[in-house]
Structures are given as C-alpha cells and as structure tokens.
UniProtKB/TrEMBL annotation:
Residues 403-425 are annotated as: Disordered. Keywords: Cell inner membrane, Cell membrane, Membrane, Porphyrin biosynthesis, Transmembrane, Transmembrane helix. It comes from Thiothrix lacustris. The keyword Transmembrane applies. The chain crosses the membrane at residues 43-63. SUPFAM superfamilies: TPR-like. The lineage of its organism: Bacteria, Pseudomonadati, Pseudomonadota, Gammaproteobacteria, Thiotrichales. Residues 403-413 have a biased composition (Polar residues). Involved in a late step of protoheme IX synthesis. This is Heme biosynthesis HemY N-terminal domain-containing protein. It comes from the Bacteria.
Length: 425
C-alpha cells in the first residue's frame, strides 16, 4: 500500500513539473503527415496526450470491469446451480429411501453436472435404477460415475457387484469382482462378496482356494461366512470321499489353514469324510488324538459308529475317558454301549444304552437298544424301546426307560455298570 502511494506521489510530482515546464516555455508544435500539417501550442498538445492517456486507461478499466462482471456472474450462477444441486441430492436420497425410484433417479441425474459430488449423484441414481430393475440403465449410470471420478473405480465396482449379486446376476458379479481383485487384491469386502458369489454358484474348488485369504482377513468369524466355509468343506470332502480318494482327502486337509484345521465343525466334517471313504483307521486315529485332548460329543458319536481293528484296546481307551469325566457323559455312555455292542458284550451294551438314554433321549439310541433287545430275546423290552423312540421322534419329549428284568441268564456274565439316575427329561 505504501509503495503504491509513493508511486502515485512521484507521478503527480512529475506531471506537475512537466506542466510547469510547458507553461514556462510556450512554443509551437508542428505535426506533418504527408501533405497535411498541423500546428498547435505545445501546452495544448501535452494536454491532448494526457487526455488520450486518461481515456485509454478508463477504456481499459471498463473492459476489465466488464469481463470481471462476466466472471462474477458465472461464479454466481455456478454457486446457485451448486446450491440447487446440493438440495436436489438431499431430496433425491430422500426419494430413494422412500421408494420413489423414478423421481429419485431424475433428480439425481439432472443435477449431477452441477454437483460438487457428481459421483454420489450417479451412484445413488444407479441404485434407484437397480431398485426398479432397469439393469442396463443402472450399468450406464455406473459408467458415468466412473467418468465423473476416475479414482473411484473400486468404489463404483463394489457397488456394481453388490447390486449384481442382489439381482442374482452371479456371472456378471463374478466378472466384476475378479476385475476388482486385480485392482485391489487385499480389499476385504471384495473378497467377502466374491466368496458369497462363489457360494451361490456352488464353485467349491474356487472357494476352497479362497479360504486361506478369508482366514487372513478374519472374514470367517460371522455366522454367514462360517456357513460358506462349512458348505465348501463339506462339498469337497464328499467329492473325494465318494470316489474313495483318501490320499487327496488327506492332502486337502493338510493344505487348509491352521485355524480351519482346529475348527470343531471342520474336524467333524473331515472325520465323517474319512469314514465315508472307508478309511476308518485314519478316522480312528484322528478322533482318538482329539478326544485325548478335549471331549467332543459329535466326534464321540462318530467314534462309536466306525469299525475298530482292535475293539479291546478301543474299549479300554473309552473307559479311560470315562474315568477322566467328572460325571457320566451321556455321549460317552452311548459310545461305550456301541463299542460293547460291536464286541457282542450285550449285557454291558444294554446297561450303557439304558443309562445314556435315561440322561439324554436319542432316537438312534432307542432303535439300537431295541434291536439289541430283540437279539437278546427280550421282545417286551424291545417293544417298549420302539414305543419310546417313536414318541420321542414325534413329541421330542423324553420318558424314563425302565426295562423289565429277565429271569434267564445273561448271554455274557459281565456285570453292568451302575445306572445313572433319570434326570427328568
């Protein structure tokens, strides 16, 4: 500011000095142009030059002001349209939420060019088109969204894949997600969506290859993703088990991430697959190792169904598990009943069956005991078991099992274990 003031004072002083000099030295100035000549006082010429400069300055200032007015008007118009677009975005989102999808799409698209966030306008408009099942229009709007912001490829792609999945366009969703994984390999939501798509497509081998990444991203903890994991393992286990490829089954198990191999449901599925494939020896070893560390009713149930090469040793092991239990676990009692039944120690098997069923009714247990009682020539007790098992299957209400003592000698003289009191089921 001071600089401009000094310059102004210098200019005024210079003009004043020139004026005084011209007035003090009057003279005639002649201007010749071809055959034309013009004479005037030097003071008059100086005044005309000064006037011309002032006029030129005013003209230039006027032009600058005019262009400035245009820019000001443009800024004002842009601000007005931007404000209107902002209100239209809010109103469009309200219409979208209320289900007025046609109105929402029109509001959002019409004002997208003037919006500060055109990407949001096009994404919301695409959602509106998706909701009214205009899928081609939806994809066109998503393309415009990418054009409005080239850095939003992943965001737009995720929205597109999500909408394609919601409309059961699984092939298109799969293609979109594969492209997104190339752009962002570690994106957790892309990985989760891809797993869901593969699950719906029943692409079990592809899902199996995806499981390690799902584990790394900790995406298998919720119920929905646990279901995906379970279905994948079950399908692949059954595939190899039905073909009897125990070597492929075991190789697949070893390649699985440790958290999956330590998962209860995964272990049970694998054990059942080994049994289905006919490798009861490997199944026996797997279940024994786990039950020695921690008890599991599901594995114990399967352990009682498989064939054992050394029943005596297996029964001794099961009795050790019984001693380590604080109380008589009904699943363990049922396991012992089945093992004694396989060894044809029917008196022991009968007692264990009765003790287990009086704690926890079991439809298969009733049937197995009834068949055993028929073998032991106890038709009345067998009929009682059949009746109780049928009632339990229909009513799911347990009743106390009380077998009628028989006078004939037992087929095996081994003494039965003490029965566990009925718990009121």
């Amino acid at each position: 500011m001071i600089f401009y003031l000094i310059v102004l004072l210098i200019v005024v002083a210079t003009v004043f000095w020139l004026g005084q000099w011209v007035l003090a030295n009057p003279g005639i100035t002649t201007i010749t142009w071809g055959v034309w000549s013009l004479e005037m006082k030097t003071a008059t010429l100086a005044a005309l030059i000064l006037l011309a400069c002032v006029t030129f300055y005013i003209f230039v200032a006027f032009l600058r002001h005019g262009f400035g007015m245009r820019r000001t008007f443009s800024r004002f118009r842009a601000a007005r349209l931007g404000s209107k677009a902002s209100r239209a975005l809010t109103q469009g989102l309200i219409q979208l939420t209320e289900g007025h999808w046609d109105k929402a799409e029109k509001l959002l698209v019409d004002h997208a060019p003037y919006s500060d966030t055109p990407l949001l306008n096009y994404l919301a408009a695409a959602r509106a088109a998706h909701m009214r099942e205009a899928y081609e229009r939806r994809d066109e709007l998503l393309k415009q969204a990418i054009e409005s912001d080239s850095k939003a490829n992943v965001a737009v792609g995720v929205s597109q894949a999500e909408m394609q999945f919601g409309s059961e366009q699984f092939e298109q969703a799969h293609a979109t997600l594969v492209r997104l994984r190339e752009l962002s390999p570690k994106h957790p939501y892309v990985l989760k969506l891809l797993a869901k798509v593969l699950y719906r497509q029943e692409s079990w081998e592809a899902l199996l290859g995806l499981l390690p990444d799902l584990v790394k991203q900790s995406l298998l903890k919720n119920d929905e993703m646990s279901k995906v994991q379970g279905a994948t393992l079950q399908a692949m286990f059954q595939h190899y088990a039905k073909e009897g490829h125990t070597d492929k089954l075991q190789a697949m198990w070893k390649k699985l991430p440790t958290p999956i191999r330590e998962n209860h449901d995964a272990i049970l599925l694998y054990a059942k697959a080994l049994h289905t494939a006919g490798d009861d020896l490997a199944c026996n070893g797997l279940i024994s190792n786990i039950l020695n560390k921690r008890w599991d009713d599901g594995l114990a149930d399967l352990f009682g169904r498989i064939q054992h090469h050394s029943l005596g040793n297996t029964i001794q092991q099961a009795e050790k598990w019984q001693l380590s239990q604080a109380d008589n676990n009904p699943a363990l009692l049922l396991l012992l009943a089945r093992l004694y039944n396989q060894q044809k120690l029917w008196g022991m098997a009968k007692s264990y069956y009765e003790s287990s069923l009086n704690q926890t009714p079991n439809a298969e247990g009733y049937l197995e005991l009834a068949e055993l009682l028929e073998t032991m020539k106890e038709p009345e007790n067998a009929q009682r078991c059949y009746r109780l098992g049928l009632r339990y299957c229909i009513r799911h209400d347990g009743e106390k099992l009380s077998l009628t003592p028989t006078q004939r000698p037992q087929l095996n003289p081994q003494a039965p274990p003490a029965l566990t009191p009925y718990n009121g089921l």
